[in-house]
Amino acid sequence: MKSIVSMLAAVVLAIIVFFGFSFVQRNRLIQKDEAAQAAWGQVEATLQRRLDLIPNLVETVRGAAKYEGETLVKITEGRNQVLGLARELGAAMEQRDTAKMETIETGLVASLRAFTGLAAEAYPALKAVDQFTMLQAELAGAENRVNVARQRYNEAAAALNTSVRQWNWLPFCRGIAPRETFRAGPGAERAPQVDLSK
Questions:
Q1: Of 44, 30, 31, nearest in space to 152 by CA
Q2: Are 74 and 122 in contact, with CB atoms under 8 Å apart?
Q3: 3-class SS at 184?
Q4: What angle do CA 117, 64, 137 make, to 5 degrees?
């Protein structure tokens, strides 16, 4: 009788250990599932950051480029005006036309003052190249953040998927589905073509 009780106790203990082990594995699967879900949340947050950031940066760069384009046009027009007046002054000097020389000289001095004032005021503020450089750095940084978030998600999903495959045969461990990992899209194996002419 003692042997039957001992055997029964051993079977009950084995069942308790088995179900206890199953329950522990179920909790680990839940933790890994939650970690994968949190990693996915980071991917979405990083994608949202990129979506919010990039259009604003592009608009900032466009504004700087437009300002500089307009300013450079004004400076070029002023320079051309000064050069034209200098040529006229040279021609008047060759003709020894003092009245014309005096009129041109007055216009030349006024144009030079306007040109040097505009150039001195505008050139220190011209920073479109810096803006483009900052945009490139932010684009690279945003893409790196997205890539890191995707890698972390893939790692969390792989850990979950491995555990699901290992332990889904146990009671209490069924019902947690494996997660898809990020994969390259069609055509990703080809290097993208960059065309700056548009």
A1: 44
A2: yes
A3: coil
A4: 130
* Residue 35 pLDDT level (bands cut at 50, 70, 90): very high
- What counts of helices (H) and strands (E) characterise the chain? 3, 0
- Residue 143: pLDDT above 60? yes
- DSSP-derived letter for residue 180 is P
d(C-alpha 145, C-alpha 46), whole Å: 7
DSSP one-letter string for 9-64: HHHHHHHHHHHHHHHHHHHHHHHHHHHHHHHHHHHHHHHHHHHHHHHHHHHHHHHH
Contacts within 8 Å (CB) and 24+ apart, 126-131: 126/68, 126/71, 126/72, 127/64, 127/68, 128/61, 128/64, 128/65, 128/67, 128/68, 131/60, 131/61, 131/64, 131/65
Question: For residue 150, which amino acid is it?
Answer: R
Q: What is the pLDDT of residue 36?
A: 92
Cα gap 30→163, rounded to integer Å: 10
Helix (H) or strand (E) holding 80: helix 2-95
Q: With 70 as the cut, is the pLDDT of residue 196 above it?
A: no
